[in-house]
Automatic annotation (TrEMBL):
PANTHER family attached to this UniProt entry: C4-DICARBOXYLATE TRAP TRANSPORTER LARGE PERMEASE PROTEIN DCTM, SIALIC ACID TRAP TRANSPORTER PERMEASE PROTEIN SIAT-RELATED
Membrane topology term: Multi-pass membrane protein
Keywords noted in UniProt: Cell inner membrane, Cell membrane, Membrane, Transmembrane, Transmembrane helix, Transport
Name of the molecule in the record: TRAP transporter large permease protein
Taxonomic lineage of the native organism: Bacteria, Pseudomonadati, Pseudomonadota, Alphaproteobacteria, Hyphomicrobiales
UniProt keyword Cell membrane, yes or no: yes
């Protein structure tokens, strides 16, 4: 069977099953098993067990449940609410007020949760009622939450970066460090956009509070923000200075999150139980998708599809920049229909030879890949951040949320072009990490 026929069969099965609502993880596994069977009958079936074991038997992947648990504890114990309250006091006098707090809160919580959707929902649940009560426009409210939530998979620890590192055998600590500067810079650009937008259209937000804060208010705000910021610095700083590995950083962060919740007297048996349940569910889904993506990747390798596509791209002789633009367009379209992790696991194993052939650094491309995934979080009809905010926003149409998110999507597109032009934005910190 030629690779063209195999590719057509795989593609038809994928789209047909997705169209009828089958979960993406099950689709990839089923198509992979069909592909392996078409190539070699049942003689390759025993290999599938080895693929599953080798995929999941990874010290790197142990970081996934640890970071998820850390974020769950902080979100469910009420510590994140205190963080947002403190930020509101400290940033409330800046033009755009609470919308600026949304971006700052998302940036800090991103360094705990590792999940874009969790970041958007956690800050959104706290912020949205307060912003509406104070007269902020929903156009500003919704966009700042969906856009700020995107920082959840860029600023470390990032679950997609853990999975990317395991998939392409890139150093995870370098990937984590590579996300810091772009994440903070993108957050600053978002905040700058909000400042300009509210300056041009003051009706979007109430006037900044001109009354000075008392020393007691500032001290209380710092007390609310300080513990979470110290937790973030301990996790990221421990990795940067080589004190802990990324997986050990996950364990350290989870322990510190529990201690922080105990110190604030907000950790209960019910909170701990819900956090553990959610951690197990999230981790199981992620690993199930990853396992099945490797089965599909094996089928693509056996049938020669991956090699043929890489050779076909090489024959086109695209410049690296044009190839980068094609990838951005491809992932933007894919992000409209499937979630980011599934999109990455579906495409990266196939495109990896072409990515290497274009001369892209795997650490740099990992950050570019996350930015592509962020675009997918904001593009209807399947942008997960749009649905997350819609679920807590009441009777607000998805179209309105997508419209509010459009400026942030355009900023991310421009940011992708910026890191292509200046790759040191991504690579400087990993090169200095101990």
């Amino acid at each position: 069977m030629s690779w063209e026929v195999a590719f057509a069969i795989y593609g038809a099965l994928l789209f047909a099953l997705l169209f009828f609502g089958v979960a993406i993880g099950s689709v990839m596994g089923f198509v992979g098993i069909v592909g392996v069977t078409l190539v070699g009958g049942s003689r390759f079936w025993p290999t599938l067990g080895d693929i599953v074991w080798n995929t999941l038997d990874s010290f790197t992947l142990a970081a996934v449940p640890l970071f998820v648990f850390m974020g769950e504890i902080i979100a469910r114990s009420g510590v994140s609410a205190r963080l947002y309250s403190g930020l509101t006091t400290l940033i409330g006098r800046v033009r755009g007020g609470l919308a600026q707090s949304n971006i700052a809160g998302c940036a800090i919580f991103a360094a705990i949760s590792g999940s874009s959707t969790a970041t958007a929902m956690t800050i959104g649940v706290i912020a949205l009622p307060e912003m509406r009560k104070r007269g902020y426009s929903d156009t500003l409210n919704l966009g700042s939450l969906t856009g700020g939530g995107c920082l959840g998979i860029l600023i470390p620890p990032s679950i997609p970066l853990v999975i990317y590192a395991s998939s392409v055998q890139a150093p995870l600590i370098d990937l984590f460090m590579a996300g810091v500067v772009p994440g903070l810079l993108l957050a600053a650009v978002f905040m700058g956009y909000i400042w300009v937008r509210t300056w041009l259209n003051p009706a979007l937000a109430p006037r900044p509070d001109s009354e000075p804060r008392s020393g007691r208010d500032v001290a209380r705000a710092l007390g609310d923000c300080g513990p979470v910021i110290l937790l973030v610095l301990a996790v990221i700083g421990g990795m940067y200075f080589g004190i802990v590995t990324p997986t050990e950083a996950g364990g350290l962060g989870a322990l510190l999150a529990v201690l922080l919740s105990l110190q604030s007297r907000t950790l209960s048996i019910a909170v701990l139980s819900e956090a553990l349940k959610s951690t197990v569910m999230t981790t199981t889904v992620v690993l199930f998708i990853m396992m099945n993506s490797q089965v599909l990747s094996y089928a693509l390798t056996l049938s020669g599809v991956g090699r043929a596509l890489a050779e076909g791209i090489a024959v086109l002789d695209l410049s690296p920049f044009v190839f980068f633009l094609c990838l951005m367009a491809l992932f933007t379209v894919l992000g409209m229909f499937i979630d980011g992790i599934s999109m990455m696991l579906l495409t990266v194993p196939v495109l990896l030879p072409a990515i290497l052939g274009a001369g892209f650094d795997l650490v740099w491309f990992g950050i570019a890949m996350v930015l592509f995934m962020e675009l997918g979080q904001l593009t209807p009809p399947m942008g997960l951040n749009l649905f997350a905010i819609q679920s807590i926003a009441g009777k607000v149409s998805l179209e309105k949320i997508a419209y509010s998110s459009l400026p942030y999507a355009l900023i991310i597109v421009a940011f992708c072009l910026l890191i292509y032009a200046v790759p040191e934005i991504v690579l400087w910190l990993p090169h200095t990490a101990g």
